[in-house]
Amino acid sequence: MNFEELNKARKILNLDPEVTPGDIKESFHELVKEVHPDVTKGKDREKSIERFRETSWAYETIMKHLSSYKFSFKEEDFNKQHIDFNKELKDHMDRFFEDWL
Questions:
Q1: Structure pTM?
Q2: Angle at which helices 21-35 and 44-66 pack, to 10 degrees?
């Protein structure tokens, strides 16, 4: 897999450049409801089959990419992530109130 394939998969699923795993799953399920061959009739069925295959490929490609990530359950990593977030939030709020007052 290369970046171009990953980006193509992202676009097929109508995803923003930054999303959560939940966003990916939700987008995939919504698209599948629209393009599944069982919901189309007649000549549109062939087009639907192709779109369904493309959507499935995109989801599998993104899931393969995500499976290469390592998630840390170490306390120090958890604390670092949340301390950084809380500091950013505090700094943002301080700037907001400085401008507001």
A1: 0.70
A2: 170
- Specify the number of domains making up the chain: 1
What single letter denotes the amino acid at residue 86? N
Let me know: does 30 contact 15? Beta carbons within 8 Å.
no
Q: Which two tokens stand for residue 69?
A: 């990530």
For 58-75, what is each residue's pLDDT tens digit?
999 999 999 888 888 888
Question: CB of 13 within 8 A of CB of 62?
Answer: yes
Q: What is the CATH number of the domain that holds 47?
A: 1.10.287.110
Q: Which domain holds residue 54?
A: 3-100
Dump pLDDT digits (tens) for 12-30.
999 999 999 999 999 999 9
Does residue 100 carry a pLDDT above 70? no
Tokens found for residue 87: 């500091």
| Closest to 64 measured CA to CA, from 16, 4, 9 | 9
